[in-house]
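PT: before anyone asks, these are the final sequences, not the draft ones from last week. 436 residues across everything. Please model them as a single complex and drop the result in this thread when it's through.
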Amino acid sequence: MSGIRALQKEKTRRQLIDAALGQLSSERSFSSLSLREVAKEAGLAPTSFYRHFSDMDELGLTLVDEAGLTLRQLMRQARQRIDKGGSVIQISVRTFMEFIESNGNIFRLLLRERSGTSKAFRAAVNREISYFTLELCDYLQQANKLDAEVAYLQANAAVTIVFSAGSDALDCDKKDLAALAQRTIKQLRFIARGAFEIGVGNKNRSEQRSSSAKDETK
Amino acid sequence: MSGIRALQKEKTRRQLIDAALGQLSSERSFSSLSLREVAKEAGLAPTSFYRHFSDMDELGLTLVDEAGLTLRQLMRQARQRIDKGGSVIQISVRTFMEFIESNGNIFRLLLRERSGTSKAFRAAVNREISYFTLELCDYLQQANKLDAEVAYLQANAAVTIVFSAGSDALDCDKKDLAALAQRTIKQLRFIARGAFEIGVGNKNRSEQRSSSAKDETK
DNA sequence: AAAAATAGCGTACATGTGTACACCGAAATA
DNA sequence: TATTTCGGTGTACACATGTACGCTATTTTT
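LR: through. Structure below.
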């Protein structure tokens, strides 16, 4: 089993994946792609598609996995930048915006399939997003010594806000992007500040009240 | 012009609209509907469709308008309840959850087309949502004496959170709905509290700091 | 009462779809 | 070396789609 065959198979499988990704755009969703189109774009006969995926759905789920991977790589990148110092929120938002600028179609895929017509797709996307959220949650919990529930709620809200901003960014004039990012940053600060104030109140009522958040609200 | 003709036309136009709405479901999006299906469901010959809409897109935009109407009616309903006293956030979330339970498919339409493949659709949905947001913004501004920008940011963030919760609710077991609502309420409180604290800091730095929000964070 | 307008129908057609099937040639296995 | 496996091809079919066109019956206008 030299693998020259398996190797070639892997390669054309990638061609299919890339062909699908390549066809995505603001006016083309995954569900609007046909098997034939994808196969043709990949330089294959339609029926050859079946040698790699039993279904367009199977391809789609693969794409979602791929997108999740990109998402986690994004997080790693943000972490690196943060470790070099700077405002966590600011850097995170900037990193996310850059991500969207260069991976718009992958992000679109996640956004669309999250509310799409296939339960499996929705579940897959939500799984990826929940990984993302949980990582942020961990970070918040240990960096800010937050209550577990508060940290989760904050992480979840923050991800929601950022994704929504990402969605807006996709239809945004480039000139308005910076302003959008600024608004998003302020909203994240609301959440962080609120979580801090309320979180403190939870375990330690009416003491240390206004000792100004050390996580950044400013 | 007695209008017996125009009347009948209006009626079958409604049949088309209702037919389309009726076909929407968790596994059926508007863009996956065909003109023929809708016409058949409405009891019409396919080609008769054109007497009322030039396009499926035109029908779709009509549906979005319809959905926006329902959304505003929702807001009115929430207002009435709020005026009768009670926690604004709690009542708003409950009202919204009820809305979703009985108008799931309309809400799905908004969610999906907001990130859909038609720029016109996306714009239409965003327009409706922005009405919704602006009304909330007005309310916050005058009820809580908030800075205009802060009020807008809070309203926008709150709507985002609530819509996202609504989206989750659509795929939720009924038994988990109450917990989801509780989490959403807490998140909205984070935002309200943060907006208050930071908003106050903005115009009146470091004074009146922890005079406990009169808008509700508790 | 005559003429014009129009909502709805049926037929027809070109186009795109998923996929079943038989086949080929090269790689893998025996 | 002989045999099997398997990625890829081309043909073929049934089906659904959007929509152009002409017709009818009834309402509306003249």
